[in-house]
Sequence to fold (293 residues):
Amino acid sequence: TAYEISLGLVGSEMCIRDRIYNIVEKKKLDVVNNPIETSHGLPNECYTSEEYTKIERKKIFEDKWVVVGVASSVPSIGDAKPFDLLGIPIIILRDKKNKIRVFHNVCSHRGYKLLQKNCKIKNVIRCPYHSWSYDTEGKLIATPHLGGMNKHNSVKFDKSKSNLKEIRSSVWLDLIFVNISNNEISFDKYIKPLSDRWEKFWPEKDRKLMVYSNDFGYFNLNAKCNWKFAIENYCESYHLPWVHPGLNSYSKISDHYHIQGLPNRFAGQGTKVYNPKLKGCLLYTSPSPRDRG
Fold:
């Protein structure tokens, strides 16, 4: 029943809290929620504990919608690339119908990793181990010698039950979002608060005019730190005068403001100076400042 399910969810949350409190004292975490005058950041254990990172992976990177890449990085039908999401191997590809799909990068037979590098899939994704093959929709279509030598099928084996495990995904503004655990609300509902916010200065019709650079507009940066440090760095402008003096000469600390959406949805920094003008006329008719984060 729904009541029993809710009890299970409550029990699961309590179990996670117990695991967290075994890693870091509860009083250290409680201080974080105090008023700013008496609060401080997360305790050290939240940045150094491998066990705590495993909990974060489950609660944030598996249970929430997270970005794993951009659709323009697989521009043509058959383009595919592997990606590692905190130890979870996945495949990003563009199928024969021009749809972006995301799969677990694991063969359904013996768990072998299917893709090791970016590639072009002409017809099938073939496992290097036993040559089981899948089409670009993840369907298992070939099982060599499954029923014995030169017997590639068996009435006792239903291929449809061993397809690749597809991951719930959605593409928004070229960003590929996934929900590993398949437990979140629909992506349209999830992104609506942010999409509505941007609608004031970036209407839906204009978003279809995006042009993608040949390098897909991004680069990989391997940060030798806990993932939260990288996110926290982007969400504050305090470091601009010393780390980005050129940017700070145009967009100063005082020009920035904090953005906090619904819990666990979106956060970042905005700046009031990104409101360009053309010959005295506003490029955007809305007086709202452009968000940068």
Summary: Confidence is low (pLDDT under 50) at residues 1-9, 282-293.
